[in-house]
Amino acid sequence: MVTFSNPLTRRITDYLRGHQLGPENPLAVLGADGKPLSTDFEGQVSYWTGDLLPSSDPRYGKQVQALRKSFVFRNVTLEGVEMLADGVGADEPDWGFTVSRPLGDDEKPTEDEEALIRELEGILTSWWDRRDLPGLLQTALVTAIAHGRQPVRPRIPDRFRDSEGRLKQQPPEKSLDGLWLTLPDVADSGIYTDPDTLEDYGLTRLSLPVPGGGTRDGWELTRLDEDGRTIVRSITPDGDGTDSGALDLGGQLWLLELRFARGAVTRDVLANQDALNVGLTSLSRNTRWAAFEKTILLGVDPPLDDDGRIKPLTGPGAESYLQPSVAREVETQTGPDGQQVEVSRERMYPGASVNKLDPAEPKAIQAAIDQATANIYSILRQRFMLMDDQATVSGRSREVATGSYLRAVARYGVTVEAFIRALLMLAARVSAIVQGRPGRYDGLRPVVTCRQRVFEPSADAITTYQALQQAGVISLQTLRGLAGIADPDAEQQQIDRERGTSPPQPKPQP
Fold it and tell me: Among 63, 342, 380, 489, which residue is least crowded by beta carbons within 10 Å?
């Protein structure tokens, strides 16, 4: 049985989604009327690491409800993961196509090759924008960095297929109208390598429609046949399956995976997030004690109502716990006839007292909060975030402090660039198949560059970049990217328009 989850998978997913006290869907037992008969109180707070009464204690349920009401957390784990993702995918990556064949010195692609490149880039640019792939990539990055991977499943709805299941032919400009990308849950999808044959298989758990309505679980399996063509097979829970027609996708599976060496959210990150949550909740409850003081009255008769029952004195700022001024003691003694008898006697308390419960000194709690926060940032290579409140720290010092962060982002960037190249080639091959011209773009290859920038470049840095460009070390397009220009191509087009429409400037007079 293949599984793509581990003991931390669900917990990491819950923490990223903000469910840090307990799982997103704790167990609840419902009666015939649909109302809950019992609730899994332990499940509701299974991630809580602070002290609680034993679950067998009759007061446990009320304590859980009080904890759920007062629970406070700050999702530093998500903040750190998003910071890493922003370092790679906050700015849209630069990509384009060139010829696959090696070019000699000063050799350029032929006119036919240039025309083919423009055609493919136009098709993919339209599809890229229409599907908002930068947004999808950013979402995939957060999950992939946290878990170490994120499957990406291509999908073509049935309306883009004919009655026999083949892709309907379309002109180039509409050839990718039917191609969508989805992000399955990491626990339900992934690429599995057979340890014996070393062949890769893509597996995704799906909800398959059932005749008459409803759904049931099934699997989508993608593999390569003996000729290297891609096969997609839908498998029902009964083991029955149907194969799609073979597609020539250049040896690619019908499932992509953005995979890193390991996930950034490890056990120590989760442990420190738990400690942070306990500290924040404790600080909040401590503040509540300061806002609504509690009073304990000892040796004071409680007020009674007309029926002789104790009147509760509860409420914000008025909670009182009263003890009777008379203590009753029961003692067992031996009577004159030798029988055991109970003797009851009453005695007065030596005095009355009024005690107010003051909040604890918050310094220790705040120190625990600060330490847990610093630990999370440190594990996620972001200690520079702890400099936010240090106004005297120089910009250069901040850059030095980001060294480990920049190295981590650079590692992620290399993997993301390879993933985008695979994605673009998959889309290019699908486009060629839909056009009825399989392999049309096999002579081209994508070139991808992720923009990794944490700080805006300084004036000195831009001067250095300009010198490198003038010396022929970097291109003008690279210079514009380093200077922070989001779209160098659009910037060049705007420059050309301004030069073409501006009035001619008079020549300087000698």
Answer: 342
